[in-house]
Design goal:
about 400 residues; alpha+beta; two-stranded antiparallel sheet; 17 helices; binds zinc ion
Amino acid sequence: METELNIDYTVGQMVEGFVYSELEAKGLFGLAGKLVIQPEYQRNYIYNDGKKDVAVIESLLSGYPLGLIYFVDNDGKLEVLDGQQRITSFGRFVTGKFAIKVDGHEQTFSSLAKDQQRKILDSKLLVYTCKGEESEIKEWFETINIAGVPLSSQELRNAIFSGPFVTAAKATFSNSQDARQNMWGTYVKGNASRQQVLEEALSWIAESQGETIDGYMAKHRQNKSCKRLETYFTTVIDWANVTFLSTSSHMRGLEWGRLYERFHTKPFDPAAVDADVQQLLDDEHVTKKSGVFEYVLGGKTEHNLIHVRLFDEGVKRQAYKTQTDAAQKAGKSNCSVCASVDNRNKTKIWDLKEMEADHVTAWSKGGASTIDNCEMLCKPHNAAKGNH
Ligand SMILES: [Zn+2]
């Protein structure tokens, strides 16, 4: 791979013919059309937060260097490998897309003093241009991605598996203007423009096929469409949407793909599911609310999913003492089950550590975790009883 350091590019040259797409939130072209600012493997523009973009302009006005920028030379056509966020920031500023504060006053580029405009346009940029095989460039891209905001795991995959499939998938899953993003956000955690919705979609379909995301992307890299991925993703979301009538913040970020695969062939009564879910979400004994959805669909038997709060130690000790005192007086076992059936433990006094607390009225039937609903049983009998 050849590299060449160019120190003569100016901001003014770079923003010649600058085009910014509001729809896709990315800078498209610069250098009078010779430069592609956001090739398909690049992430979307994420500096437009009123801080990072403003900081770029303030650096230029203060005469600070913006750091190294990397271009790839593709048969005379240049692509930005690293520096897209910075170029898009000053491109947007020069074309009047945002303002900065100078001495307490909002200033757009055109309202700045002429000498300040010149200072920005004449700022020199340090640009490394490299030429080489696609694979070398991709590898390099991973290495130089150290400054600024690190790439998310999916942004990195998009770079490594760049091609028609990534282009189509990004257009579908990271388009912030797509009205479906709102609904998807009920179920999926993460930032669409950082490719985290795409990552979730890929993880669901890959898992359903016993694959990794990398494996799936490698296999479909040359596909021009991502229709199957989109269909699977929206099918999962639609299923979640009709199965659970009410939405809740606890739904966000669940493994919906796995839940879909586990339950979608079973019929459910959404009204009954909803009633169960609401009751459990309101139940103070349920300490892991995100587990409620799977717990209900699974028939309310997998208690470990929802981390039911059990009896605290003081309650257990108190129940143990009361039971054991009474049992010793009566000459029976302090486990009521042992005492009631004929076996070799009929009169056995178990140690506290050999016993477990049981809900007299089961927790799942509304029994509280209080002393008057607590009975200590020997471990084998408690296990046999099952339902807490
Ligand atoms: Zn027992």
